[in-house]
Amino acid sequence: MTKAEKTRNYIIEKTAPIFNMKGYAGTSLHDITAATGLTKGSIYGNFANKDEVALAAFDYNFNNNVLQIESSMRAQTTAKGKLLVYVSIYQNFITGTISLGGCPILNTATDADDTHPALREKALKAVLSWKKRIIKLVEEGIENKEIALDSNAEQIALTVIAMIEGGIMISTLTNKLDNWDLIMDSLKKYVNSLG
């Protein structure tokens, strides 16, 4: 890896949590230089503008999330067990054990909905990718006779995503972890009822 690539990766790693917590509009150049200890010239020597940093930061946050999910899923032997991994991984966003500032998909989708088309597109692709992965899990569960044959894989995927993202939003807004627990308890019951 070249020095420029190392510097670029360093900037992304240091700023990804800031963009996720503060959003695109809320993250200033000062935030970026303070987090990295680099000058404005160093930042713009590696990125054309703040947009490029924000897009790279989203990719970094999202890819870390996917890696954690995939790693946890390897320990599961059933489709339902793999679906329930989402509950435990996203629990970390709520309890703060992951210091990335919450769910990168929800944060970015909310922040960039009407203001930043490129970030909105990244969030959309992330949701569609997530939906595709859940559909594949459900189809595996159907094939293994773990999930009912007449199940609608797309409907299940959308329900899981909506309950997780809605649970994060509600518990964060209300600042009540109990709300997350109640919603995730409903999601666990839903997943376990699929068979």
UniProtKB/TrEMBL annotation:
Pfam families linked: TetR_C_13, TetR_N
rRNA-binding found in the keyword field: no
SUPFAM superfamilies listed in its UniProt record: Homeodomain-like, Tetracyclin repressor-like, C-terminal domain
Presence of the UniProt keyword Transcription in the record: yes
Record Gene3D superfamilies: Tetracycline Repressor, domain 2
InterPro entries attached to this UniProt entry: Homeodomain-like_sf, HTH_TetR, Tet_transcr_reg_TetR-rel_C_sf, TetR_C
DNA-binding region: 28-47
Record's protein name: TetR/AcrR family transcriptional regulator
